[in-house]
Please model this.
Amino acid sequence: MIPPERVRSLNDRAERRGGRVVYWMQAAQRPDWNHALEYAVRRANETGKPLFAWFGLTDRYPQANLRHYAFMLEGLRETQAALEKRGIPLIVERVAPARGIVAAARTAALVVVDSGYTRVERGWRRAAAAGLDCPLIQVETNVVVPVAAASVKDEFMAATLRPKIKRVWDRFLLPLKATPLRRGEAPSALKPLDLGAPERVLAGLRLDRAVGPVPGVAGGPSQAKRRLRRFLAEKIGRYPEDRNNPLVEGTSGLSPYLHFGQISPLEVALKAVATASPGRIAFVEELVVRRELSMNFVTYNDRYDRFEGLPAWARATLLEHRRDRREAVYGPAAFERARTHDPYWNAAQAQLLRRGGIHGYMRMYWGKKILEWSEDPAAAFATALRLNNRYGLDGRDPNGFAGVAWCFGKHDRGWPSRPVFGKVRSMNAAGLRRKFDADAYARRWTASAGP
Ligand SMILES: Cc1cc2nc3c(=O)[nH]c(=O)nc-3n(C[C@H](O)[C@H](O)[C@H](O)COP(=O)(O)OP(=O)(O)OC[C@H]3O[C@@H](n4cnc5c(N)ncnc54)[C@H](O)[C@@H]3O)c2cc1C
Model:
């Protein structure tokens, strides 16, 4: 059963008598545990119409670079092969998604799309809803609890969203079975890319090539499942302690796969709960409450990617302390090249450059110090977001916007006032050293330089 709260009509066009059902895959790039795909399969079977899946590959996405696209294409190639086995053709065209789907679905009966939360993703769906001559139905599948079923406003913090999620999550923590498709068929007029030759596809895209793929980190649903299996078998029991130790690989490493929709958060949550490990509680808190707090933030706060989107108290206190003396001041280039006086911070930045991500605990320190060592808090916000989204394999995600905003006071309360930070929570190097061997972390990441 697909809970009705996951399903929403984005326009009021009537379904065509003839034509195909189209699944417009964009945010949920996976062949299973995908409510939007299964909804489309069921509608095709019910109406006796053929189904095909379609994906619009654009290089106009903000901060599109080789690192992100190589990872995404590995996933799409695998997803295409898995769908093929289910008799569902997946056509990937190089085109702006909203314009492309309107053309690809010109004679379609109905289009089903997954949901995206950022401004760009919402804009695509809005434009397609206006341009299509058939219904566009959105099915929310990249969250455990649909955003509006949990809350209809920008939540203050995890403590205010948590009870709202928990009140309803039993309705959504349900396994999803794949339904066999009766008939799959794509229109012959479309111009699919050959994903079997990813190098050629990548070469044809206008991407920032200065940020290359992360060695040893392959994209794709099967890689995501492998990581999940390993995490559940070996790590979840120690997750509550290990997740705060950057020297131990104690977390799941799933964030890039979740970002590209290569694995379902519902599958991850249900499998984590099924382990009955005591660690599951802390893990589900991060995966569901914290992650979905980020979706809540970008959905209900239009300024989620700017200093102006912070709560009034945080903006006021940071501006009040704007002229405070800093122990150091760096511009964006020094941060980007990991050239600060602080070996711990430089190590975190080196990890971001080379591994496409920073350990969750150090990521907080990393963002807090950009705030502390920038001339101005609004400029610091822009620097942190740009670096996070450029180099993070999981960047450009609601979690990135919320994570950076958290460093500046979002989803947090006021603390005793300090220079530069005002009432925003601060972090310092002595705190790191108390928690773990910070010098060993610094040595590990700064031993060999460069991305
Ligand atoms: C400054 C800053 C920037 C961040 N940028 C990003 C980003 O670009 N993309 C991103 O996915 N996460 C971001 N985070 C959140 C968090 O650090 C990562 O999600 C986490 O470290 C990813 O590692 P993991 O997959 O091993 O997480 P695990 O600990 O295994 O957790 C499982 C999943 O839960 C979610 N999760 C875990 N911690 C958090 C958290 N604090 N907030 C929200 N969701 C969480 C993630 O989806 C994660 O993959 C950021 C945090 C900060 C402080």
Summary: The chain has a mean pLDDT of 97.
